[in-house]
């Protein structure tokens, strides 16, 4: 395994953990927004939805970054 | 004779091998490769999961704007003149299955709370002598001014009913959960 490939493996593992944490946060936000709806507080649910969308955008950017890195390694 | 037996055994072995090969052609995926998940696949799965959860969150947030009647109703609960200082009146809000209690404090202000005790859901009653809301099941006491528990097993405050006064009429307009 080359150094670049080893770097790629480490990068994939690290981003996998980060994205996993993001998904857990999103699940928490979903539970919080359902709770807010049950208490008839629509405002809190909207804030949770915005937060969840922000986490998804971060996750998406991380995935794009890691797949671009992967493509570069394959080209080299 | 012995040679013939050995030959037939070998043939059978060949037959078995052929059968195995056929079976493998029909089911070419092995257990190991079938259960193996790469990091790439896992990242894709998590990204799709993230998208799904964000979508679900957006749907949940949109529910109160789409479904009519999810806002708290405005319900007339009592006439202000009918409740003396230190007196109380029972009513239901937001539905007929949600018992509430309206109390006029010593300073003349009106406050209302859910009558359901936050410990084990017994109905609280107004104790005029103690100036508290009293749960007879486990002797829990809540302050009338804020609905906070100060004695007995309850730890959470009573949900407060938002009130509006229009002339002599008192309306319940919402619920605040402490």
Note the topology.
The complex is a heterodimer of chains A (76) and B (178).
Chain A: H1 3-38, H2 42-75
Helix pairs in contact in A: 1-2
Chain B: H1 2-26, H2 31-35, H3 39-66, E1 75-79, E2 88-92, E3 99-104, E4 110-114, E5 125-127, E6 132-135, E7 140-143, E8 149-151, E9 160-166, E10 169-176
Antiparallel strand pairs in B: 1-10, 2-3, 3-4, 4-9, 5-6, 6-7, 7-8, 9-10
Q: Provide the β-strand percentage band of chain B.
A: 25-35%
* Alpha-carbon distance between the two ends of chain B: 95 Å
| Major sheet description of chain B | 6 strands, antiparallel
Stretches of chain B where pLDDT falls below 50 for ≥5 residues? Answer: none
Q: Which H/E pattern describes the elements of chain B? A: HHHEEEEEEEEEE
The domain tally of chain B reads 2
Category by helix and strand content of chain B: alpha+beta
Helix content of chain B: 25-40%
Q: What would the principal axes of the Cα set say about the shape of chain B? A: elongated
Number of helices of chain B: 3
* CATH H-level homologous superfamily name of the largest domain in chain B: Rieske [2Fe-2S] iron-sulphur domain
Strand tally of chain B: 10
Taking pLDDT < 50 over at least 5 consecutive residues as the criterion, the unreliable ranges of chain A are none
Shape of chain A: elongated
How many strand segments of chain A?
A: 0
Largest protein interface? A-B, 32 and 26 residues
